[in-house]
Design brief:
By secondary structure, this protein is α/β, with parallel strands linked by helices. It has three domains: 111 residues, Cobalt-precorrin-4 Transmethylase, domain 1, CATH 3.40.1010; 106 residues, Tetrapyrrole methylase, C-terminal domain (Methyltransferase, Cobalt-precorrin-4 Transmethylase, Domain 2); 40 residues. It is built from eleven helices and ten strands. Strand 8 and strand 9 form a beta hairpin.
Amino acid sequence: MGTLVLVATPIGNLGDLQPRAIEVLAGAALVCCEDTRRSGRLLQHAGISAQRLRRVDDHTEHSATSDILDVLRSGATVALVTDAGTPGISDPGHRVVRAAIDDGHTVSAVPGPTAFVMALVISGLPCERFVFEGFLPRSGAERKQRVQAVLSEQRTVVLYEAPHRVRRTVDDLGAACDPNRRIAICRELTKMHENVWRGTIADASLHLASTEPLGEYVLVLEGAAPEEPADDSAVVDMLRNAMAAGSTKRDAAAEVARLTGRSRREVYDLTLGL
């Protein structure tokens, strides 16, 4: 059985390429990558030559999997890289990993740069609990649903966005968001023109309107404030409605507790006075 190694590559600064990443890439029988030209330049920078490169992107990942498995079945090592960052994070890789695991091969990784982790830790926003949303859908009902989910999320939210869509995404978030909710707009991380803007969502659109949107963006949005728990009178009204619709006291209490976040015991006690 062979070994598939997911190798994290620099998100901008080539100095972030790790020695172990170079070692794995140099020893791999096959290097799978999104763009053979870009990865070829990376290998050249690392002093690695005469490598067999196989294009594996969103369009070719499925068809490339059988070739990758053939190499792994010979007992060789296959390295998988993307254009920047860690494979599988908003990039190809998941299908190949799943296929290698199902075929009985070892899957490992050389950890390293990931844009969303860097943006999160330098944003100044809470890092203890967060959710990574990747790229939002470009349009339609799915986009509206995902935007709404982001707005109600109480954990710190990290998003990727392309330069030609970043203004629209920030406008969509700001349209229904608490204007004082904080956001960090990060672009060109680790590169010469690295820039991080921090402020409120209300000011973010003004900031983007005054700058040329260049480079890849990472948006880090403060989590929504916890909703105030429903008071007793509101809970009683909800219980009355549920019971009028035919629910037992116990079932009504369970449902209202789920909807309000109140404890089931507290809610059930309120049913005793009805």
